[in-house]
Fold this protein.
Amino acid sequence: MGRRVPRGTYRLRSVFLKSTPRNASRNAPLSTQREKTYVLVHGAWHDGRVWDRVGPFLTRAGHRVSAPSLTGHGEKAHLLGPDVGLDTHIADVVGLLREENLTDVVLVGHSYAGMVIAAVADRLPERVTGLVFVDAMVPADGESVLDVMPHTRHLLDLAAGSEAPWRIPPLPEGPEPQGLFGVTDPADKAWLRPMLIDESARCFRQPVRLDDPAAAAIPRTYIHCVGSEPEGVTRRPVPAAQPHGAPSRVREVRSGHDCMVTVPGELAELLLEAGTG
């Protein structure tokens, strides 16, 4: 039996911490649903700390939370190398669910991590009760990041002429309202910036495998960040129906891309709703 994450705490980078909301005025309402485990997966270039402001809202509502850093990020930054790819990150989360014996899991993926959570649900559908794509890539079987978001190819092209062509640097800060991954407040940017690190090009090139029909029964929620979308970046339309036939559930939050930094309470409220199935 794996180790169980204690109720009322949240698991962050293999450390169990008691959680209190960062800002009481932005608290999400208490949940009356059955206790679940929210596994929050960060996007490219980030690490698990980016969820620090969201986790306390979910634990306050009575749920367990895990926000792991993927290989090459956070406390695993020293493992970054050209062989790290999408499959590596899928294995990170699959391993977490198995080692901790996590069930009733709501998998939450931000941005690139939509690729990761889709594959994890395909590997372990019996452990997953919900998928939440937060401003995230939503792949089909056999697709890579380059297929889902073709404009990312220019990042690989830029890196190709460097001394380490396998390293993809974080996106540069842009003018408002783009800011740093949609974060414009100076204090928030200062908090976010130390987390950002290069990504391996293999993460963008590797295709995802989605071939277990059991995963189609898992409810999905799509959360879109609106109001400050970068020019030239278009979001792939969400299908009208989920794979199991129910209408797609799409929610919007007014925020830049890193909504877990800018509007953690509002995001947590949507995650709690998604956890109801």
Observations:
- Residues 1-32 have pLDDT under 50 and may be disordered.
